[in-house]
Every structure is written in C-alpha cells, then in structure tokens.
Amino acid sequence: MSGQQSTAASTSIVWFRDDLRLADNPALHAALERGGPVLCLFVLDEQSPGVRPLGGAAKWWLHHSLASLGERLRERGAQLVLRRGPAEKVVQQTVQDADASAIFWNRRYAGPEREIDTALKQELRARGVEVASFAASLLFEPWTVRTGAGTPYSVFTPFWRACQSLPAPREPLAEPTEIRGAKHRVASDALDDWRLLPHTPDWAGGLRETWQPGEPAARERLEQFLTNDLADYDRARDEPAAGATSLLSPRLRWGELSPHTVWHETLAVAEPAASTHRFLSELGWREFAWHTLFHSPDLANQNWRREFDAFPWPPLDEQALSAWQHGRTGVALVDAGMRELWHTGTMHNRVRMVVASLLTKNLLIDWRHGEQWFWDTLVDADAASNPFNWQWVAGSGADAAPYFRIFNPELQAKKFDPHGEYISRWTAGQLASAPIVDLRASRGAALNAYDVVKRSK
Asked: Domains of the chain by range and CATH?
C-alpha cells in the first residue's frame, strides 16, 4: 500500500490499550484530525514474550470497561474491533484486513510493551503505513525527567520538584461527538468469548457492588471527589473509615480518565492549597513509579536495591501466607484490609502499607508473594505502581522506607481508625482467636535478618 494514497479516503486505526476513553485521547484525536474512516482496535495480548497476563480482578474490570467503550463508540458511528493474540502479529493482520494506511496509539512504558511498539513501528513504516504514538497516560515522559548528572531520579521529592519545573501538563483534548467508521466491518471477537469474567465460582459480587467501570462513571467519580472530598483530603486521607480518598486509581490505571484531565480539573477547584497540593503529589507518586519502571523494567521480579538480593528470606510458610491472603492473621487492621481487598478489589492506601509491612517484616515472606497476590486481586494493579509500592514497603525499592520502619498494625489502628469503624466494617467481629505472629519478637527477627543485607554492602 502506498504511503502517498489520499488520506481522505483511507482508513486509520486507533489502537486502544490502557486508554479506554474518548475524552483526551491523543491517538483518537490524531486519527480524526487526519480525516477518513476510523477503525478502533483493542488487542488482548497474553502471549507476547514478557507481557504479564492480567490478574482476575483486572480482567473483570477490563471486560466491563471494554463493553462501555464499545457502546460509546457505536453511538458515535465507529466499531470497536476485539482481537486476541500476540500484539505484533494481530495488529499487522488488522492493518491488512482494514486496508488501513495509518495507525495511531498512545505510548506504553513497560519494557515488553515498548519492544512490541518499536518493532511494529519499524515493520509498518516499511510497508508504507503512517504510524504515530502520543503521550497520554503520564503527565511527564520518563526520559524528560533527569538529574543534573543525566541519570534517573531515585528519590521522590527532587523528582517531583524537577517535574514541576518542566512545562505544565498540556490541556486535555475534547471528547469527539462523531466518529466516521470504516465502510466495511472487520471481523471481531465477541467480548463474552474472552471469558474475562469469573464463572465457577463467581467471586465478583463485591466488585459489582462497589464499581461501575467505564468512562462515564469515571467522570462522575472525579466530579464527586472534587466537589465533596478534596477539601478534606489532606486531613482525612490517612483515615480508612473517612471515605476521603479519590477512588480514581482504577480509572487512571485503565485510562478511563487521563492524568491531564485530573490535573487541570483539580487545579480549577478552589479548595485549600494543602489538600490540592497533597492530592496532586499523589499523581506525582504514580509518575515516579512509572519513571522507575521505565528505567528498571524488571521491577516486579528483581530488587531495585540489589543489595537486598542478600536478604535471608526463610523457607516460605504457606500457612502464614494463606492466612494473610484471606484475612485470617488475627491482626485486626490487617485482616480488615485483606477482606476489603477481596470484596472490593481495592484497599485504602494506609492499610496497604500496613498489610505489606506485616507480610514482609513480621512474617518474613518475600515481597514478591504479596505483589503477586495484589496483582491478582486489585482492580487498579498496574505494571509500575504495584511492584514499586511493594518494594517501597519492603525496603528494597526506590526512595524506600528504611527497612527498620516496621508498621505496628495495632498502633496504626489506634491512630488512624481510633473508633474501630473500618475494622468493624470489614471484620464484623470475626477475627482469628489470636495473632499468628508476635509483633515484637518478629520485629526483632526482621532487624536481625536485615543485618545480613547491611553486611553485604
């Protein structure tokens, strides 16, 4: 196919990935600006080397978010084509099937996905296909934020200060009201055939009670947060019973909202500066996680601080791990958090730190076991934030909490859930008869184990 053919008559493909939205979607915007028919594509890739298969909760969210996106595209005149398989092969086949002369996508930053995208750009351009990628899921591209020495940042505060010295995040793009679809339909899988939803057993009842995936619900939640909760964010964000958190993390993870939209709409609200600053710094923490993954693609498997390779993890205690996973440790705040996670697919951030600390420092279970459990049960687990935050708590990550900072779950409960509202909500008094671990003794054992790491430096 000739790269010189008329763009007015030729089809453009928009390849959706972690950007399941119409508003502020630069790839979609570019296709519409180009003119001509537009075919929208989503590829479920669980086969390409290095690509991590989604966890169960993530698959549940993806199913419903794709259903919402497909309906919204149909309303505007476009088809969402669903295809499954290795992305490099599937995308090339779709370009051929649609007789497309251009393809647009928004950039991804994990290592395997970047390799796929780079190869596709080369192969498609060699065939005369126009290919362009855009910044959409981060406020600042990872390669644009460097220390004075030209190296990646390893500490959050100077990283975020450097980000804020760069040009401000661009204004979000408007949502299209009409999309000219391709003249002939291209074969698509049926969403139900992907079997992303759990069946035997159907464990997703709590997810259905808690969430409505899709861009319209994401927009509604952002408006509710900015109107009702932002003012108290700085004061109440650490209290799990307060309901002051944004609940936007799965919306950002799946790209139902862009960070640019969240950024600018937050700044447009006249709320206390402390709360606005604190909330936007949480977007910055998300940026820092992706910045770290970009430069350390093996973040989910390897200690970022390689001296932690010497940490003497004992043989895995399967019973202790199972008790932690299912909220049966006998430690009230931890069990409440793990039960909240199983029911809703999410967990309050303060409690996430507490449950991760208990696993890695009191139970002395390798952080990778916890990271994998969260990967399977969180609706907001992504390739950067999930391992990044686990390594932060474990002490092995970038800007990590010092290893000797071991969260005491009893003191954390007294400070942040003083009336026991959160614990009562999720345990209803049903706790194991006694904790499975002595918090004081296990703290000492953890510090002794860390001495091995210190001696290895």
From this structure: 11-136 (3.40.50.620), 138-173+213-295 (1.25.40.80), 306-456 (1.10.579.10)
